UniProtKB/TrEMBL annotation, chain A:
Upper classification of the organism: Eukaryota, Viridiplantae, Streptophyta, Embryophyta, Tracheophyta
Keyword tags: Cytoplasm, Golgi apparatus, Membrane, Protein transport, Transport
Source species: Abeliophyllum distichum
Isomerase is among the record's keywords: no
Protein's recorded name: Vacuolar protein sorting-associated protein
InterPro entries: Arrestin-like_C, Ig_E-set, Vps26-related
UniProtKB/TrEMBL annotation, chain B:
Highest classification ranks of the organism: Eukaryota, Viridiplantae, Streptophyta, Embryophyta, Tracheophyta
Similarity annotation: Belongs to the VPS35 family.
Keywords: Cytoplasm, Endosome, Golgi apparatus, Membrane, Protein transport, Transport
Location(s), subcellular: Cytoplasm; Endosome membrane; Golgi apparatus, trans-Golgi network membrane; Prevacuolar compartment membrane
SUPFAM superfamilies assigned: ARM repeat (SSF48371)
The name this protein goes by in its record: Vacuolar protein sorting-associated protein 35
Species assigned in the record: Abeliophyllum distichum
Cellular component aspect of the GO annotation: endosome membrane; Golgi apparatus
Record function comment: Plays a role in vesicular protein sorting.
């Protein structure tokens, strides 16, 4: 079969290397076909620079109408498959039309690129960054090479971070007061808090704290909302009595969370909620959902 | 059916749980062997998930827990060795908290927590505080109790205590105390909460299950008591108030009872003594169904033993006024627990009494006070019917007797008789017997009339019939025994001072008079003899008796005696009275009181004439009279003649001839008193003997007439012996010839055909003859005297 493949082999090999590729942090990324690959990690305002080498397959010359590299930031909606909305598009022309006989290397640099949005793989939407090298050819179709990379943007800790405190209940049945120490958590944060039982007239069996992700895509009538429970963490076993206070300590690090995204390019939003669920002996569920804001904190290490 | 199914199901569930643990333990071991932390955490969490079951009773759950516990020990070893898993203990502490289910999470957290403390990377107190807080997440009683008990267990060796390696500047034993107290409080809450789970009809089962779990809770108190830093001050200011607060506030009888007992048992006596007020202050606040009496009893028992352990601690008791505090506390408890049965109250008083007897044996006022409280409690109630109450009251009353071994002490207790009054008649008697036995055993002498008065008040159940009880149902033997005891008791009432002794006698007399005809025959004789003893004592110190004002003169005493014996007439018991009169007469004789003695004899004769009807009794009586009269030396000739004449007269009037014969020859002694200045009237001796001989002859003839054969010669031999006696004493009227004649007569009688031989009388005669022969051969004065008699 090799010869057939060989026949359709592109006329040249295009490879992209980053100038700081050795030292840059690599992170796993799931690509379109579900495979996980490791790709370099960038953040906004970073300079993306490197080399692109084009090497014709042994001894053949490659004619082209020009070589360019694009840095694309794209949003892909699954229900609108195949349509990419490029919210960022930068181009560098690498070569004027001509012929390449041997391996040729072009340095490139996008300096201080504005990449406001983070790479995201959601249920209905994907946001990705890619370097796209195009060797344009008139007749045989262009040779295109993609290099994905991941963008994560760090936020400083919020200056105001109030706790979430609330008293809820069903009249004459159940009154509780819960408190989460913050309203905004970073991804490796710990949720600390407590639930105070003011009145318990139903026989509770247990109490869980859930982390839910709500992803809404589209706008207006076309809004799609997908809610996913990322964590189910048992807080309490058995029936408390009035006056009990149950501690909460939930480490967020084991869960695959992202920062909260609000109205990214008018295409989608990702929000996080803490859902406190109380289950009684008849398996009835009583719950209270509270939004929390997630943010990415610069890791010190 | 349902129950058996329940048990079978439980077995099945337990087996399933065990299998689950077994299964996951296999993978856990594999993970541990390959130092795979992630797998180890995964399988240990799965393993621990088996403990999430709600279907097992505490007993079965314990089995499951123990199985999981073993595995956790293994895991702990693994955690300790950082080289094996390459994860710092701080990270590990976070890592185990990722587990989604709370129960496995907390077990793992506790396990790592113990490693964390050992590593000393964080202050022990912070870790402990965190653990004890986090465990709040488990609110299910059984699961929570076991989890917390696990926490207590693994943290035990890591508590920062004085001189422990975990004590540092920031970590003191107070943190350990705080930790244990908090864990205790939470465990107790869970334990109490069990009570409110499940339907009412399963109450009994629940109680049983809860009882099985109680030691898990109590263990905390034990741990507290072992923290070295907990000295008296800490105990008084922190530990005890906190524990008591928990006990009181939980409002659960089972818990309150158990925990109070626990406190008393695990902490040192010395602490209890110094914190009595606090400890006792909690008692009235407990639920009314709590068996406080047992709790308090145990406390007092412990304190008593403590007091007994060494005399050095006694001042402490005094210093803290232990008795007053206990007494007040008991009062309050009884007041607070309105429905406490009376038996409970009395039991408490018994304990208090035991306590005070041990600790303050010298404080009789305390004892009396306790008894007084008892009286207060009992007053207004009818006589006690409940046997348990009775038993307790008897215990209450016996305690001082046993302790002091001296009834006299008890007699000074003013409330003692009042308590006794509340006993029913039967028990009252039993108690009275106990008192008497105590006196007898200890040879206690009751020496004042006041005390005697009190004593008789105490034992009045034996002294007289108590109203409302019929005497019919009395057991004759028991009655006799009781009365004999009373009789013995009378000899213990004694005082060297005659005046006081007389008072005692008067008091006793007053009391036994109330005894009625059934008791008097038992009670009069000892009193009479006791009185006679006094008389004889006075007679010895005769010379000292001076002046008429002295109340205890023999004369007066004899008057009393007379009255006493007269009382027997209501019984009636003439034989007994007669004997007593004779005794008195003899005593009067010794006191040289002729008219008195005469009077007593008169009384005796009157009785003989009017009351003694039975012929056998008459025989006995007449012999007694003769015997006594013979020893009298106080009488003048006239009086003596009158009396001897009477006696001889009565002798001759006895019903049967042999009796007549014997009485008459006995009368011979009345005329021959073998004293220096005794009467020696040989003439009348001979008369008597001759008369008896005549009667013997008549008797022999009567037998001959009625039976066709003569009776034995016994009477003759007896008379012969009398002859020999007077012969030897030197009575001139008794001659050898008379004796010779009598011997011949007997020999003739014996050889006569009609005489039936009697071996006894033959032997008697033979030995009499042998005696005569012996005297003859002996020679000397007596030999010469006997010489003329030919055999």
């Amino acid at each position: 079969m090799n010869f057939i493949i060989g026949a359709f082999k592109p006329a040249c090999n295009v490879s992209i290397t980053f100038s700081d590729g050795k030292s840059r942090k690599q992170v796993p990324l799931k690509n379109e076909n579900g495979q996980t690959v490791t790709v370099p990690l960038f953040q906004s305002q970073e300079t993306i620079a490197g080399k692109i080498s084009v090497e014709p397959v042994s001894g053949k010359k490659v004619e082209h109408n020009g070589i360019k590299v694009e840095l694309l930031g794209q949003i892909e909606m699954y229900f609108d498959r195949g349509n990419f909305y490029d919210f960022t598009s930068l181009v560098r022309e690498l070569d004027v039309p001509g012929e390449i006989y041997e391996r040729k290397t072009y340095p490139f640099e996008f300096s201080s690129v504005e990449m406001p949005y983070e790479t995201y793989n959601g249920a209905n939407v994907r946001l990705r960054y890619v370097l796209k090298v195009t060797v344009s050819r008139g007749y045989a179709g262009s040779i295109v090479e993609h290099q994905n990379f991941v963008v994560r943007n760090y936020t400083p800790p919020p200056s105001i971070n109030n706790s979430i405190k609330m008293e809820v209940g069903i009249e004459d049945c159940l009154h509780i007061e819960f408190e989460y120490n913050k309203g905004k958590y970073h991804l490796k944060d710990v949720i600390v808090g407590k639930i105070y039982f003011l009145l318990v007239r139903i026989k509770l069996k247990n109490m869980d704290l859930e982390i839910r992700r709500r992803e809404s895509t589209g706008s207006g009538a076309n809004t799609h909302v997908e809610t996913e429970t990322l964590a189910k963490f048992e807080l309490m076993d058995g029936a408390p009595v009035r006056g009990e206070s149950i501690p909460i300590r939930l480490f967020l690090s084991p869960y695959e969370l992202t920062p909260t995204y609000r109205n990214i390019n008018n295409k989608f939003s990702v929000k996080y909620y803490l859902n406190l669920v109380l289950v009684d002996e008849e398996d009835r569920r009583y719950f209270k959902q509270q939004e929390i804001t997630m943010y990415r904190l610069q890791e010190t290490s | 059916m349902m129950i058996s199914n329940g048990i079978e199901d439980e077995e099945k569930w337990l087996a399933e749980g065990m299998a689950g643990i077994q299964h996951n333990a296999f993978y856990l071991h594999r993970a541990l062997d390959s130092n795979n932390l992630r797998e180890a955490l995964k399988y240990s969490a799965l393993l621990l998930s088996e403990l999430r079951t709600s279907r097992l009773s505490p007993h079965k759950y314990y089995e499951l827990y123990m199985r999981a516990f073993d595995e956790l020990r293994r895991l702990e070893m693994f955690f300790k060795d950082e080289n094996r898993h390459g994860c710092s203990v701080v990270d590990l502490y976070e890592l185990v908290q990722h587990a989604g289910n709370i129960l496995p999470r907390l077990y793992l957290l506790c396990t790592v927590g113990s490693v964390y403390i050992k590593s000393k990377e964080a202050p022990a107190k912070d870790v402990l505080k965190d653990l004890v807080e986090m465990c709040r997440g488990v609110q299910h009683p059984i699961r929570g109790l076991f989890l917390r008990s696990y926490l207590a267990q693994i943290s035990r060796d890591e508590l920062p205590d004085i001189a422990s390696e975990y004590e540092s500047e920031g970590d003191t034993f107070m943190d350990a105390v705080e930790f244990v107290l908090q864990n205790f409080a939470e465990m107790n809450k869970l334990w109490v909460r069990m009570q409110h789970q499940g339907p009412l009809r399963e109450r009994e089962k629940l109680d049983k299950e809860r009882n099985e779990l109680r030691d898990l809770v109590g263990k905390n108190l034990h741990v507290l008591s072992q923290i070295e830093g907990v000295d008296l001050e800490i105990y008084r200011d922190t530990v005890l108030p906190r524990v008591l607060e928990q006990v009181v506030n939980c409002k659960d009888e089972l818990a309150q009872y158990y925990l109070m007992d626990c406190i008393i048992q695990v902490f040192p006596d010395e602490y209890h003594l110094q914190t009595l007020e606090t400890l006792l202050g909690a008692c009235p606040q407990l639920q009314s169904a709590v068996d406080i009496k047992t709790v308090l009893s145990r406390l007092m028992e412990r304190l008593s033993n403590y007091a007994a352990s060494s005399p050095e601690v006694l001042p402490e008791f005094l210093q803290v006024e232990a008795f007053t505090k206990l007494s007040n506390a008991i009062g309050k408890v009884i007041e607070a627990q309105v429905d406490m049965p009376i038996v409970g109250a009395i039991t408490l008083y018994v304990s208090l009494l035991t306590f005070t007897l041990h600790v303050h044996p010298d404080r009789l006022d305390y004892v009396d006070q306790v008894l007084g409280e008892c009286v207060k409690k009992l007053s207004g109630k009818a006589k006690l019917q409940d046997s348990r109450v009775t038993k307790q009251v008897v215990a209450l009353l016996s305690a001082p007797l046993e302790k002091y071994n001296d009834i006299v002490t008890a007699l000074t207790l003013s409330n003692y008789p009042r308590v006794m009054d509340h006993l029913d008649a039967a028990t009252n008697k039993v108690m009275a017997m106990v008192i008497i036995q105590s006196i007898m055993k200890n040879n206690t002498c009751v020496s004042t009339s006041d005390k005697v008065e009190v004593l008789f008040e105490l034992i009045k159940g034996l002294i007289k019939d108590i109203e409302g009880t019929s005497t019919d149902e009395l057991d004759e033997e028991d009655f006799k025994e009781e009365q004999n005891s009373v009789a013995r008791l009378m000899h213990m009432l004694y005082n060297d001072d005659p005046e006081e002794m007389l008072k005692i006698i008067n008091t006793v007399w007053k009391h036994i008079m109330a005894g009625g005809p059934k008791r008097l025959p038992f009670t009069v004789p000892p009193l009479v003899f006791s009185t006679l003893k006094l008389v004889r004592r006075l007679q010895v110190q005769d010379g000292d008796v001076a002046g008429e004002e002295v109340p205890a003169t023999p004369k007066k005493i004899f008057q009393i005696l007379n009255q006493i014996i007269e009382a027997l007439s209501v019984v009636p018991s003439p034989e007994l009275a007669l004997r007593l009169y004779l005794q008195c007469a003899e005593a009067a004789n010794d006191c040289d009181l002729e008219p008195v003695a005469y009077e007593f004899f008169t009384q005796a004769f009157v009785l003989y004439e009017e009351e003694v009807a039975d012929s056998k009794a008459q025989v006995t009586a007449i012999h007694l009279i003769i015997g006594t009269l013979q020893r009298m030396n106080v009488f003048g000739i006239e009086n003596r003649d009158t009396l001897t004449h009477k006696a001889t007269g009565y002798s001759a009037k006895l019903l049967k001839k042999p009796d007549q014969c014997r009485a008459v020859y006995a009368c011979s002694h009345l005329f021959w008193v073998d004293d220096q200045d005794g009467i020696k009237d040989g003439e009348r001796v001979l008369l008597c003997l001759k008369r008896s001989l005549r009667i013997a002859n008549a008797a022999q003839q009567m037998v001959n007439v009625t039976r066709g054969s003569s009776g034995p010669v016994t009477l003759f031999v007896e008379i012969l012996n009398k002859y020999l006696y007077f012969f030897e004493k030197g009575s001139p009227q008794i001659t050898g010839a008379a004796i010779q004649g009598l011997i011949e007569l007997i020999k003739t009688e014996m050889q006569s055909d009609s005489t039936t031989s009697n071996p006894a009388s033959d032997a008697f005669f033979a030995s009499t003859l042998r005696y005569i022969r012996f005297q003859k051969q002996k020679g000397g004065v007596m030999g010469e005297k006997y010489d003329p008699i030919k055999l």
